[in-house]
Design brief:
Shape: globular
Largest sheet: 7 strands, mixed
Helix content: under 10%
Strand content: over 45%
Order of helices and strands: EEEEEEEEEEE
Number of helices: 0
Structural class: mainly beta
Number of strands: 11
Length: 121
């Protein structure tokens, strides 16, 4: 079993930056693949943000490409999401997920509890 714990969310003005971290406890053969998803306040589903495979291969949603950076620290068993040039549209609860290299949330086996990111205009 894998336990995921997100941190780093908060309130920031448009154009600012935040760095999210996800700490993983325990690991399996599939837990090396980790991604970030988000759910907007008015949304009903978790939407893909970014994914990393073994900290080498990465893929981003078009809406965040060039502004967000996903990276993995194997020594600390963490994955981070550096968010720059934040927009009000980025406001959401951000979730860390593990178990797949995919943009489909249904393919992930493990999820964190989420961390709130609020971007004011």
């Amino acid at each position: 079993q894998v336990q995921l714990d997100e941190s780093g969310g908060g309130l920031v003005q448009a154009g600012g930056s935040l760095k999210l971290s996800c700490a993983a406890s325990g690991r399996t053969a599939s837990s090396s693949n980790m991604g970030w998803f988000r759910q907007a306040p008015s949304g009903n589903e978790r939407n893909f943000v970014a994914v990393a495979w073994s900290g080498v291969s990465t893929y981003y949603a078009p809406s965040v490409k060039g502004r967000f950076t996903i990276s993995r620290d194997n020594a600390k068993n963490t994955v981070t999401l550096q968010m720059d040039s934040l927009k009000p549209e980025d406001t959401a609860v951000y979730y860390c997920a593990a178990g797949a290299y995919s943009s489909n949330p249904r393919e992930y086996a493990y999820w964190g509890q989420g961390t709130q990111v609020t971007v004011s205009a």
